[in-house]
Each structure stands twice: as structure tokens, then as C-alpha cells.
């Protein structure tokens, strides 16, 4: 089972890198990144689209026709459309979500961006998130790409994860530390 997971991970990374190279070579990197984000949103929102992607019984030619119709509807670039059709022809279309996530990570990494995750106990405004992102970018001397998550279970405070570094000022964490100390006594 683990060899299958390794195959899917290495395959998705190879396909993602190929998409990155194609996009960069044709000076459409920014456009294809946006299209990838749009398709990922469609995957999240549409159960029908999820089924379309993950159903291995779909006829290749029908799937390719559907991809072309979707591409026309969303005005997707020719390169991105051909890439998705290629995945379908190779029976790898069910990897689409993983490939696009990997592609976006590669593009971000190539720009020198550092990924960070921000969790807060209260909903933050876009200005507050921007300020935190700016502070982190200055601290880490590179552009930080921040993923924000609202998590009311934290009770109060923030959790910021940048790579292997974690800043946890949440009340939930403090209560956990107090509980651990009380058990040790």
C-alpha cells in the first residue's frame, strides 16, 4: 500500500513540475496559477465535478470532450486545457487536485516564497492578516505566503507555523501546559 502512495506522490510531483515548466516556458505561469486555483475551487464546491475527476469508469474521449467544454466555459488557456486532456488520455485525471496543489507549491517555492499557516481564535480582517504577513516577511527576509484559518477552539490568541517553527500564543495551549504541569506534580 505504501508503494502505491509513493507512486502517486512522485507521479503528481512529476506532472506538477511538467506543468510548471510548460507554463514558464510559454510565459503563462501567472495565468495558469490563477486557473489552477479556480479549478481547485470548483473541485471544492462541486460534488459533480469531484465525481467527474475521480470516476475511473469515465470514457477517455467523453472526459476529454468534457474538459474542453469546461475550458471553453471558464476561458482556460490552451496549455492548461491540453495538460488536463493529456492527464485524461494517460488515465491520470484522478490526480488532478494533487497535481494542481503540487504545481502551486512549486511555483510559490520558485518565487522564493515561504509558506506559513495562521490560526486565530477570532476572525481577522484582511488588513490584520496583511499586517501579520508583512511582519513575517520582514522577520524571515523573504515573501511569506500565509494560509489563514479561523479556529474558535483556540479560545484566544494565535498560532503561526512557518516551516518547522511554531509560535503558539493560544489560551488552549496554555491550558494544556497547565494541565500537564498539574499531572506531573
Structure description:
- The chain is of the alpha+beta class.
- It folds into two domains: 2-109, Peroxidase, domain 1 (Orthogonal Bundle); 114-184, no CATH class.
- The chain has eight helices and four strands, in the order H-H-H-H-H-H-E-H-E-E-E-H.
- A four-stranded mixed sheet has the order 2-1-3-4, with helices on one face.
- A hairpin with a 2-residue loop joins strand 3 and strand 4 (165-168).
- The longest helix has 24 residues, at 2-25.
- The mean pLDDT is 89.
Question: Could you give the topology of this structure?
Answer:
Blueprint (H helix, E strand, L loop, with lengths): L1 H24 L3 H17 L1 H8 L5 H15 L3 H12 L6 H15 L3 E7 L5 H15 L3 E7 L7 E5 L2 E4 L2 H14 L1
Parallel strand pairs: 1-2
Antiparallel strand pairs: 1-3, 3-4
Helix pairs in contact: 1-2, 1-6, 2-6, 4-5
Second rung of CATH, namely the architecture of the largest domain: Orthogonal Bundle
- Given the structure, what is the number of helices? 8
Rounded radius of gyration (Å): 20 Å
Structural class by secondary-structure content? alpha+beta
The low-pLDDT segments are none
The 3D shape can be described as: elongated
* CATH fold-type name of the largest domain: Peroxidase, domain 1
Tags for this entry?
4-stranded mixed beta sheet, 8 helices, 185 residues, single chain, 65% helix
Summed up, what is this model?
The protein contains eight helices and four strands. The chain has helices at residues 2-25, 29-45, 47-54, 60-74, 78-89, 96-110, 126-140, 171-184; strands at 114-120, 144-150, 158-162, 165-168.
Amino acid at each position: 500500500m505504501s508503494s502505491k502512495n509513493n507512486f502517486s506522490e512522485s507521479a503528481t510531483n512529476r506532472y506538477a513540475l511538467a506543468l510548471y515548466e510548460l507554463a514558464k516556458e510559454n510565459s503563462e505561469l501567472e495565468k495558469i496559477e490563477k486557473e489552477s486555483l479556480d479549478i481547485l475551487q470548483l473541485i471544492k464546491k462541486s460534488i459533480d465535478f469531484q465525481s467527474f475527476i475521480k470516476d475511473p469508469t469515465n470514457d477517455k474521449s467523453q472526459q476529454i470532450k468534457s474538459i474542453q467544454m469546461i475550458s471553453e466555459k471558464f476561458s482556460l488557456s490552451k496549455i492548461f486545457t491540453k495538460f488536463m486532456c493529456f492527464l485524461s488520455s494517460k488515465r491520470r485525471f484522478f490526480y488532478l487536485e494533487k497535481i494542481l496543489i503540487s504545481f502551486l507549491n512549486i511555483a510559490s517555492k520558485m518565487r522564493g516564497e515561504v509558506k506559513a499557516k495562521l490560526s486565530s481564535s477570532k476572525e481577522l480582517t484582511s488588513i490584520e492578516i496583511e499586517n501579520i504577513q508583512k511582519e513575517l516577511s520582514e522577520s524571515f527576509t523573504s515573501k511569506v505566503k500565509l494560509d489563514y484559518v479561523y479556529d474558535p477552539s483556540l479560545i484566544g490568541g494565535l498560532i503561526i507555523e512557518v516551516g518547522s517553527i511554531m509560535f503558539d500564543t493560544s489560551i488552549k495551549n496554555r491550558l494544556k501546559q497547565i494541565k500537564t504541569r498539574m499531572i506531573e506534580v
